[in-house]
Amino acid sequence: MTADTSLRFREFKMPDVGEGLTEAEILKWYVQPGDTVTDGQVVCEVETAKAAVELPIPYDGVVHELRFEEGTTVDVGTSIITIDVAPGSGPAAQAPAPEPAAAAAEPAPVAEEEEKPKGRQPVLVGYGVAESSTKRRPRKQTAAVPEQAAVAIQAEMNGHATTAPDTRPLAKPPVRKLAKDLGIDLATVTPTGPDGIITREDVHAAAAPAPAPAAPASTPAPVSVAAEPGVPGARETRVPIKGVRKATAAAMVGSAFTAPHVTEFVTLDVTRTMKLVEELKGDKDMAGLRVNPLLLIAKALLVAIKRNPGINASWDEAAQEIVQKHYVNLGIAAATPRGLIVPNIKDAHDKTLPELAAALGELVSTAREGRTTPAAMQGGTVTITNVGVFGVDTGTPILNPGESAILAVGAIKLQPWVHKGKVKPRQVTTLALSFDHRLVDGELGSKVLADVAAILEQPKRLITWA
Q: Is the four-CA dihedral 327, 303, 452, 355 of positive or negative sign?
């Protein structure tokens, strides 16, 4: 690579968008080769072990090459896109190859010993050999030219005549990979790109079933050899474990087999809390804010933590210390299409009820839209999971790693309940509190759960206990 080339083409590498992430999956490209980009423009969306994140490009220029297809998992630090920051200053074929180290180690073909004639352009890896008016000596069939043998063997396997390297179809590496995945022979594809280059659209067009022409009745219909995953009637569908779901699974296994879990339950009458929710919806201070039972349950938990601060801690195994937290980053478990995520409200203990409602509303809407950042899911201390929205009574939640407690909220249902000595229909729910028994003994865990229940049964205690 020359000095001019290194200045002209910039490689954008997969960044670590969280803390200590090692890989990310490319979900979607927003640009294609030939597109003009500006500094700060989002070029792709990737999914890490924590969330989906949009990546901005730090250069102005023209997209030269996308290194990987959508759906590919790429290690952090690997180049994913090449940008031509000086378009028009020279032939685009001077861009560096995807793996320059491997290319440099490969011995030069014997036939390249002659001096290149003037006007002949270098060749970009994956594009085949550039056309030239100068005749070339035939390559010697030696072990130094393994690509020729591979092309010939592949051609014979596909039932085609061997294609010489000089007549190899022009296509970029991502397009070649796409064709390989779809089982398309590039030699049979009609190119529509500039200078006869085969594009992604050409490959997709070749893969699409052609309209059935009028044919004799004896002509057999084409038969699909392999079915796509998820096809109706398929007996099994295999889904790769990656991204958020992979990280969640690892975290839950680690938590379940590291922290000794204890879960306690309480069933309570929340009729007064439900009435307070309706009153708050008409309060001018809560105008435009999301007001629901979860808001008051979150506030009740924060008050209970204030009264029993020992529940808000973590276990430092390496230092053999208990870390007492003097702040509460309240996590809210949210189910998304990519899996369960637990963003948290920073310093929730300092927020007023309207501020808590605003933060809770923003957290939920951001999670549903898939815009939760990795930072929003770090540093949680205590979590609430609302399984009641699925119509179940309660559960035995597993702790988030590094946290000491998690509160599960069950469905709120109208049930017969003894109230003031008489059986009446009341709004009833069940709460379940799981805690790390290394940090929290039965007495402390019971006090926290009892305080939450007492507040929800008599919401006026929010004022006197807060």
A: negative
Q: Spot the catalytic one: 64, 204, 349, 437.
A: 437
Mean pLDDT in residue range 64-82? 91
Which residues are CB-contacts of 81 (< 8 A; sequence separation ≥ 6)? 11, 12, 31, 43, 44, 57, 63, 65, 66, 67
Range list of H helices, 282-401 = 293-307, 353-368
Ramachandran area for residue 355 (φ above 0: left; ψ -120 to 50: alpha; else beta)? alpha
Q: Cα–Cα distance between 163 and 169 in angstroms, integer?
A: 9
With vertex at residue 424, the alpha carbon angle to CA 418 and CA 430, rounded to the nearest 5 degrees, is 60
Task: State how far the Cα of 343 lies from the Cα of 333, in Å rounded to an integer.
Answer: 7
Tokens at 446, concatenated: 């019971």
Please tell me which residue, 373 or 397, carries the higher pLDDT value. Answer: 397
Report helix angle 293-307 to 353-368, nearest 10: 120
Cβ-contact 359, 345 below 8 angstroms: yes
Query: By the 8 A CB rule, do 330 and 348 touch?
Result: yes
Cα dihedral angle (129, 132, 136, 142), rounded to 10 degrees? 0
Structural contact between residues 130 and 121, judged by C-beta atoms closer than 8 angstroms: yes
Q: How far is CA 323 from CA 312, 313, 314, 383, 404, in A?
A: 9, 5, 5, 17, 10
Distance CA 194, CA 109 (A): 28
- Here the tokens at position 340 are 């369960």
Q: Is 261 a catalytic residue?
A: no
400: DSSP letter: P
β-pair partners for 452: none
User: Closest Cα partner for 71 from 203, 185, 200, 242?
Assistant: 242
Indicate the pLDDT class of residue 423, thresholds 50, 70 and 90: very high
Residues 419-430: b if buried by 16+ CB within 10 A, e if exposed: eeeeeeebbbbb
Share of the chain above pLDDT 70, in %: 74
pTM for the structure as a whole: 0.58
Helical segments of 67-110, H only: 100-105
